[in-house]
Amino acid sequence: MKVLFKLKSKNAKKCHWVLESSPKTFHTLLRKKKVFFEWHRLSLREFIRPTRCYKCNRFGDISPKGPNEETCPNCGQEGHKKTDCENEANCINCNEANFKFKLGHSVDHTATVQSCPAYNHQVEQLISKTDYGR
Ligand SMILES: [Zn+2]
Ligand SMILES: [Zn+2]
Ligand SMILES: [Zn+2]
Model-level pTM greater than 0.85? Predict the structure, then answer.
């Protein structure tokens, strides 16, 4: 198993570790649900989270030097931060997916919500690309 990165938890006493494992280890661990690591009891769950660029809010663009301008996660427009945003929520990723693939996603949400259809599409893509060893 390989440690990929550490995530902060809402609870300051806890943190999350994201690991990569072989399909075999993955299935064994998931069946157990709990694993003892040194003296800590850890609980496990599958981690699937698409990377969204914190600068332009697009998926799959993880470089801060990416080609896209910084956009507001609330309304998808350039030139201001979310804290200064006075616009209605307008998801940049759903807008672009609608435009590119002629879809009809609702766009009246921010780019950061988990109910975002474009986000969920990314999750499905990740699952289909993940090697579960089946
Ligand atoms: Zn970006
Ligand atoms: Zn805005
Ligand atoms: Zn969306």
Answer: no
